[in-house]
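ok trying this again, last paste got cut off
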Amino acid sequence: MLFHCVYFWLKPELTAAQRADFRRGLESLAAIKSVVATSIGGPAPTTARPIIDHSFDLALIVQCRDVAAEAAYQIDPIHLAFVAQFKSHWTRVQIYDSQ
């Protein structure tokens, strides 16, 4: 399995409604055929330690069968529409892929 882990830092001026729309946009990515599963969440209330980064707003974890499936996810019209609609909502995105 491949895990595509995407961390978003949202613009602080976004309204609650815009943040809710953004989350619904993330949820829409589960409909992509090459995706096995998705998880969405904010920073967990774990103990603060120097090696833990709680600074992001939302994380998306996309599980795909392999690298080819993740590549298909990247060019899927649902993913492309999400990026086009919501890229103005974030100040930073950080991605970690693992297998």
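PB: full thing came through this time. The longest helix spans residues 16-28.
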